[in-house]
């Protein structure tokens, strides 16, 4: 694909070993980086994207998956940005397979949190009838990142939040020893507290949450 070829060349031309090392260290050395910081990466992406706008629009899913197969983390960020923009309000039901694939590919908080809110969350906003089926499957999965996504997908829903579902997911995973699950519970509750602080206070007081989850949930209350 021309877009991907040109993007690769642009990233290679702007690679920085000096920047890459601390970026890789920040991500616990799970991923390789070109060393292109976010503002420059977004500028490069915007420029190349604009040159191949039609190609990206017509092949967003294929391009996204191809980007996710690249080694450097910068490509994964571009994949998320393309999928979020090009599929917004244009999902098809089968896209849940693609969303699950993105969440479980080279998973870490820097991609999963975006994907949970902007892909999974927007998909289920478009197809609310799929919510219980999808969320139950993700929540029951042995994959911790799918569990986290199930807890976080309503970020930004505000008054549209299904509080009963949110609370049930938080309670279900309240005993988890995983840092990223405890943190997700606290974050999801803290965000919903901006809409319904009383309900969150009540839930936290009545639920045996881990200290981290409780602390995060009540941070702004």
TrEMBL record:
Gene source species: Flavobacterium cerinum
Signal peptide positions on this chain: none
Stated name of the protein: DNA alkylation repair protein
Listed InterPro entries: ARM-type_fold, DNA_alkylation
Top-level taxon of origin: Bacteria
